Amino acid sequence: MPDCAHMISAPLRALSNSKRLTILRWLRDPTSHFPPQRDGDLVVDGVCVGFITKKIGLSQPAVTEHMQILADAGLVSSKKIRNWVFYKLDDEQVRTFLAALSETLEIPKPR
Amino acid sequence: MPDCAHMISAPLRALSNSKRLTILRWLRDPTSHFPPQRDGDLVVDGVCVGFITKKIGLSQPAVTEHMQILADAGLVSSKKIRNWVFYKLDDEQVRTFLAALSETLEIPKPR
DNA sequence: ATCCTATATAGGAAATATCTTATATGCCTG
DNA sequence: CAGGCATATAAGATATTTCCTATATAGGAT
């Protein structure tokens, strides 16, 4: 396995902001935090920017930027449907990141 | 279990800086990255500020600040011996943090 | 006491992050 | 095509982070 240091930097920076961490917690379990959507399923498609904006109380451009940072880090994926953009936690990538972080921080196994 | 959100924010901010992440990787396995110390064992006591400063190529005050951020986040512990200060990865707290982060990011189990 | 070494603190400069308002783009409806 | 809605981009203000130099503190040796 190659040195995966740079692979965890972007997610760590993305997670270092408390607003983004809050959003990720919402996306982890969207039906508990958002009302049903007409044009896209909360779980299947993700949560639209407008819902996140309303709930977090920031301007819409600020939320867009936060979501792009999360997407660039690979922690969420986005899907455009009509003129909505739905963001969804990327379970696979989250697990990969968590594994890489453990690998980076935990004491190396003796051999 | 209480909401442990704020418990992971400080470590995440501490980890979001690449210099600090590099230092943590060194501290994870100090004997592979630093020469033996006269007045404190690399593994038992930790690594002194001077060694880290020399290796990372920043000013000593910058390193001191980085180490304080890591210590405030609970990721490292410090031990003063004579006029040295040794920093050491806190395995227990690192594991606690990793578990809390997984708890925060992973899909809640159905029940 | 004086000097040398190791680390911490103070102050401030420069870079980066966060956020807002204004505007652009793109899709849908009538 | 005109208008409305959802999101993205642009520009810039403010806040925070990162880093340096200068200085303080503290222990050990001469």
TrEMBL record, chains A, B:
<protein>
    <submittedName>
        <fullName>DNA-binding transcriptional regulator, ArsR family</fullName>
    </submittedName>
</protein>
<dbReference type="InterPro" id="IPR011991">
    <property type="entry name" value="ArsR-like_HTH"/>
</dbReference>
<keyword id="KW-0805">Transcription regulation</keyword>
<dbReference type="InterPro" id="IPR051081">
    <property type="entry name" value="HTH_MetalResp_TranReg"/>
</dbReference>
<dbReference type="InterPro" id="IPR036390">
    <property type="entry name" value="WH_DNA-bd_sf"/>
</dbReference>
<dbReference type="InterPro" id="IPR001845">
    <property type="entry name" value="HTH_ArsR_DNA-bd_dom"/>
</dbReference>
<keyword id="KW-0238">DNA-binding</keyword>
<dbReference type="Pfam" id="PF01022">
    <property type="entry name" value="HTH_5"/>
</dbReference>
<dbReference type="GO" id="GO:0003677">
    <property type="term" value="F:DNA binding"/>
</dbReference>
<keyword id="KW-0804">Transcription</keyword>
<feature type="domain" description="HTH arsR-type">
    <location>
        <begin position="1"/>
        <end position="109"/>
    </location>
</feature>
<dbReference type="InterPro" id="IPR036388">
    <property type="entry name" value="WH-like_DNA-bd_sf"/>
</dbReference>
<dbReference type="GO" id="GO:0003700">
    <property type="term" value="F:DNA-binding transcription factor activity"/>
</dbReference>
